Input
Amino acid sequence: MLRRYYGRNLRTAVGASGAPYGYTVTVWTSGALLIHAHGLPNVLQALMFMAGAVAGYALVSMIAFGGLGVRFKEQPRHSALWGNLHFLSIGFAIGASYLASHSIDNIVAWPATGFLATVVYLLVLGLEYAAADERSPEE
Output
């Protein structure tokens, strides 16, 4: 019985976890770069990293939707799965995180790295999704 449902549910799990997977890899890696450059954060620095990431998400949300009060009504995407690999979006976000974390020598590095990692990841992810939609055969 398990075999009967496994393939369908595995496809559901892989398809639904694309963006969270990519953002998790982005945040973990950008945080690791920041810790390498500045050492382990104290509570204030960790909160500043989080605040930078939240501010970045809010900025991209306002760009995408025109405001934060808009309700998200889009249907799930049905594009090529290679669009969920996020090689470019994670890669560019890591590059931006490296630049921020290794070129800013004060406490501002914490929110700046969280902000840049989030903004770059989401903006480039939008391009990757657009390319995957563009190159996907119609259903």
Observations:
- The chain has a mean pLDDT of 90.
- The chain has one domain: 17-134.
- Residues 17-134 form one domain.
